[in-house]
Amino acid sequence: MTFLKNRIKRFEALLYFFGAFIGILFSVFFPVQIYAANPPGVPTDLTRLTLEELMEIQVTSVSKSEEDFSKAASAIFVITQEDLRRSGANTIPEALRMVPGVQVSQIDSSTWAITARGFNSRFANKLLVLIDGRSVYTHVFAGVFWDKQDLVMEDVERIEVIRGPGGALWGANAVNGVINIITKNAHKTTGGQVSAGGGNLDRFIGSIRYGEKIGDNASVRVWGKYYNRDNLDDLQGNPAPDEFEAERGGMRLDWDASESNSFTFQGDVMHGEYAGKTSDAVNSLSFAPTTTDIVRDSQVRAANFITRWKHRFSDTSDMALQFYYDHDNRESRVMQELTVDTYDIDFQHRFQLGDRNEILWGLGHRYIHDSFENSIGISYFPDSNLNYISNAFIQDKIALIQDELYLTLGSKFSVNNFTGFEFQPNARLAWTPNDKHTVWAAVSRAVRTPSRSGDSGRFNAATTTLPGPTPAVVVIQGQKDFESENLLAYELGYRFRPQEKLFIDVAAFANIYRDGHSFEVEAPFVNPSGFVEVPVVSRNRLEGETYGVELAATWDATDWWRLNGAFTWFQMDLRKDPISTDQNVTGFEGNDPEYQWNLRSHMDLPSNWEFDQTLYYVDALKSQQVKRYFRLDLRVGWRPAKNIEVSIVGQNLLDSQHQEWGVDRIQTNDRNLVERSVFGKLVLTF
Residue 14 domain-assigned? Predict the structure, then answer.
């Protein structure tokens, strides 16, 4: 067995050095020769959009209606299907690394910390994530379970990422950003596709999809996917028990019933199993709390469906009615069992009022039923609850100067069972004097409503020592009087094309936070079981500001070589109330890098070869004790035939391992190391 492991390690090392050698060869010598010769036979990838086409991509996340990406009055970044394919990313979180203003840290094999514009954590509570209009933000922990957000990557049409508030249209918790993952219409995926690949870390990823036309106006696709990911290592170099595997499948039906009516129905199911290390202090106090680690395998089961009807009254008026159901059941590392059922209905109507006003309004209602199997480590009171949020919004897009200057005014109004009435207005101005320049500005208010955990959860987080013989337990607990956090954001942006082959997008922001979530340490007391409790309760005693600059650029150096770059500068300054006993304000300030940037290079080589290189830099996370790091990813792809694609991807090629996340104030898992990996993939379409 030892002999086999050594052989595998030698093979991985050989693949790494071979990949690095090929990367140096192509980067230094081959591009120079091609540029000098400039052969007419170098193919241009038919899926690559020109800069002009990129600027005209229709996005919907900013205003809930189609508009050109370049004219949107928001800091928006679009990840196209071509970006996904050539990045070599096997998961959505990996793809989000390329977005300026978005912080991505891998915690373990299946767990991520992802946010936009600060306040990153395992459950980043100020980022709203949607898949085809279905919210995957969990109201229980105020964040996203990234382990269940997986798709057939080839079926993703684009990912629209808004940095900055989106509460005026999308509602509570769209505070620092919105990520909207949009999959392809079934009409675009007829025929079959098989994808399979594996490597030293992603041991096997396989998917199959088949689409078929039904009559002249309807199409359906069905798909399945299996994912098996190996464990990472802990800081001591020992294998961490965090390996993960999941199987999932689904379908989508699109029917153009008439010129005025279209229907969509889609849904999927998944099951995943993963290992995790946590502390006895969390799961079983046993009247003798310790910090001895235990290993507990866990699993997640999920299902959802969404149905949507769109009706077009005229070229200037349409409506959409949508309903979705989402089921999530999991036995996690730190709790016995959680079940959440979400029911959501949403209606919106767009119409033209006169020559200058485009009105968009809508109504929505969401029921969320949760049920917990309480344990000594984690408990909720009550252990089952029905939560709701009802909302209405209205927006007016005013043409101050037709086709040049637009002012958008709007607000979301909502009522929820935690804090009652909330409102989230915004004003956005966009000026496009010609097709090469757009200047925009925005002022917005957004709120983050309490989660179930912040309202009525109880976590035996850790043990501590106090004077005396009795052990003490730190207990984090929610509060019924916890109010919504609120944000007032100021944004300014500029998109321009200084020349035909160069596109630059710059955004700056200043955010003012009030009533921020603080963790207040209260006086210890002896509970009925005889233990000393140190209560840490949720309060609104934090305030502060964040500000920064984000830049993205695309340059078509030649017909066969495209360069993309992104840069982020971010600052945070937080303060607590004089009466606050929060011990970790600096923890929030040090959870996000001050600087980060990436440079992506995509080359279309002769004989249908592709060579892609991406270099990332992420600054240190001071409160996480995570050092700054560089990361190099290389991809070599080949299309021997129109329906066959073969690729090999090397990730984290500059070092064997590096750390991306530590332990935050409520995180209990160990710090694991992201490893160098090599992955080969075959995609066959028919």
Answer: no
Per-residue pLDDT at 545 exceeds 50:
yes
Looking at residue 28, the DSSP 8-state letter turns out to be: I
How many Å from the N-terminal Cα to the C-terminal Cα in the chain? 41
**In 522-626, where do the E strands start and end?**
525-526, 532-558, 561-576, 595-605, 609-618
Provide Rg for the chain, Cα atoms: 25
Q: Residue 334: what pLDDT?
A: 65
Strands 156-163 and 75-80: antiparallel
Q: Which structural domain, as residue segments, surrounds residue 485?
A: 39-685
Choose among 260, 268, 267: nearest CA to 309.
Answer: 260
Edge-to-edge, what's the strand order for the sheet holding 657-659? Answer: 233-234, 672-675, 657-659
Query: Tell me, what amino acid is at 175?
Result: V
- Dist CA 317 CA 321 (whole Å): 14
Spatial distance between the Cα atoms of 441 and 682, rounded to a whole number of angstroms: 45
Nearest to 326 by CA among 284, 385, 366: 366
Query: What distance in Å separates the CA atoms of residue 115 and residue 106, rounded to the nearest whole number?
Result: 12
Cβ-contact 671, 235 below 8 angstroms: yes
User: Residues with Cβ < 8 Å from 495, sequence gap 6 or more?
Assistant: 55, 70, 437, 438, 503, 504, 505, 506
Q: Is residue 612 part of a domain?
A: yes
Question: What tens digit of pLDDT does each residue of 388-444 get?
Answer: 999 999 999 999 999 999 999 999 999 999 999 999 999 999 999 999 999 999 999
DSSP per residue over 560-576, as a string?
TEEEEEEEEEEEEEEEE
CA-nearest of 633, 578, 480 to 89 is 633
Give how far Cα 444 sits from Cα of 165, 166, 599, Å.
7, 8, 31
CATH code (residue 70): 2.40.170.20
Taking the CB of residue 662, how many other CB atoms lie within 10 A of it?
19
- Rounded Cα distance, 337 and 379, in Å: 10
Distances (CA, A) of 561 to 43, 47, 551, 610: 11, 14, 20, 10
The reply to whether 1 falls in a domain is no
Q: Token pair of 431, please? A: 């000026």
DSSP string, 108-159: SSS-EEEEESS---TT-TTEEEEETTEE-EETTTTEE-GGG----GGGEEEE
- Total residue count of the chain as it appears in this document: 686
pLDDT tens string 488-520: 999 999 999 999 999 999 999 999 999 999 999
pLDDT at 12: 45
CA 357, CA 351: separation in Å to the nearest integer?
Answer: 9
- Residue 492, exposed/middle/buried by CB under 10 A (0-12, 13-18, 19+)? middle
With b for 16 or more beta-carbon neighbours within 10 A and e for fewer, the 382-396 pattern comes to eeebebebebebebe
Question: Could you tell me if residue 365 is left (phi over 0), alpha (psi between -120 and 50 degrees) or otherwise beta?
Answer: beta
Q: How many CA atoms lie within 13 A of 321 on its CB side?
A: 6
Q: How many domains does the chain have?
A: 1
In 3D, which of 219, 88, 227 has the Cα closest to residue 150? 227
Q: Which two tokens stand for residue 351?
A: 């119409």
Q: Helix, strand, coil shares of the chain as percentages rounded to 5? A: 15, 60, 30
Q: Are the C-beta atoms of residues 508 and 521 closer than 8 Å to each other?
A: no
- Does residue 23 form part of some domain? no
Collapsed DSSP state (helix, strand, coil) of residue 244: strand
Nearest to 121 by CA among 140, 135, 139, 141: 141
Looking at residue 65, its amino acid is S
What pTM was computed for the model? Answer: 0.90
Return the residue matching tokens 């299309």. 639
